[in-house]
Amino acid sequence: DDSDHFGKKRLDLAGPLLAGLFRILFKKLTRDVYRHLQKCVETQKPFTLINAIKPGIITNGLKYSLATGNWGDQAKAMQAKAGVSQVLNRYTFASTLSHLRRTNTPIGRDGKIAKPRQLHNTHWGMVCPAETPEGQACGLVKNLALMSYISVGSYSAPVMEFLEEYGIEDQSELASAPEATKVFVNGVWMGIHREAPYLHDKLLNMRRHGQLKHEVSIVRDIREKELRINTESGRICRPLFIVNEDQTLRVKKHHVDRLEQIENNEILPEEGLTAWEELMVEGLIEYVDAEEEETILIAMTAEDLENARNVSGKAELVRSRAAHSLEGFDPAARVKSSNWAKTFTHMEIHPAMILGVCASIIPFPDHNQSPRN
């Protein structure tokens, strides 16, 4: 369907990249030992481990790749990925931070393909809309937004155990229950479930209270009758406040006061947790990836939630806005949003969090610069 959708993208982090490189080099080492053993058997010489293992293979292989950025076997330098390791920028502190949050899309720079370079709706809050180089790599080299986080991946076994506990049935049962929901774990069809809303609520509550890893994404696609659960690594997520069904925030004043006390070293957070993890374990904040973002409704500000509670519909909201602006029109006042819904599930932590490291240190980034008009 849409190949630029950010929910279908996976980032390769340093860990998996180094692991892959080590695997190639270790295979090379074992092949060498095998060859030496073969030679010893053919020439009937005694086999000594010291002569069999060449100590430089793994060391030199890692050094070569980290020094040149050609990721892969030195012998096959043509097929290797270039520019994987780079020298860290040290021009300024901001340039260092920005370089550490940079991502790259491996598409040939020469082709004039526009689609992968454009800003996609799903980039909102995940990558910075402004910080990208001009020219050749425009839109292909992106920078992560301030609060975005890349999942490190976790085992799917605990998820499977919970699914079996909550009555997941074999795929063969689909014939007898055509209205049942298909359950997928990491893209693999695991079975069907007849009570999708119940299962979805259960899984969400488990993630919000720490029984499941916070980075597991749970997507209920009602139209397709699917429940998709992802635990793999490299998905980009971002944190959001959770909103109750009565359109109130779960974060209350006493939580904020507690955070301030922790910040000022007046009290300590719970043992083994940071203040942020405390918020997640209490189910006030959760990480949402680009795919799950499609199935939730996010309020921009607390004002949107207030309107959801107190105003009966969009027409009434627009009317009250118009009456208010007729009363005392202030051209410098911030434009109030006229979004109205009564089914918000999450709220943005702060709208400025869509920006990356460099764009967020610009004063008034949401105002046109006068020399540019």
From TrEMBL:
Which residues, if any, are the signal sequence?
A: none
- Recorded GO MF terms: DNA binding; DNA-directed RNA polymerase activity; ribonucleoside binding
Q: What are the RNA polymerase Rpb2 domain coordinates in residue numbering? A: 86-150, 183-244, 276-351
Record-annotated RNA polymerase beta subunit protrusion domain positions: 12-59
Which Enzyme Commission numbers does its entry carry?
2.7.7.6
Q: Does the keyword Flavoprotein apply?
A: no
Q: What class of enzyme is it?
A: transferase
Query: What InterPro entries does its record include?
Result: DNA-dir_RNA_pol_su2 (IPR015712), RNA_pol_bsu_protrusion (IPR007644), RNA_pol_Rpb2_3 (IPR007645), RNA_pol_Rpb2_4 (IPR007646), RNA_pol_Rpb2_5 (IPR007647)
Write out the entry's keywords from A to Z: DNA-directed RNA polymerase, Nucleotidyltransferase, Transcription, Transferase
Gene3D superfamilies with a match to the protein in the record: 3.90.1100.10
The biological processes this protein is annotated with in GO are: DNA-templated transcription
One GO cellular component, as annotated:
DNA-directed RNA polymerase complex
- Family statement drawn from the similarity comment of this UniProt entry: Belongs to the RNA polymerase beta chain family.
This protein is called what? DNA-directed RNA polymerase
Organism, by scientific name, is Phaeotremella fagi
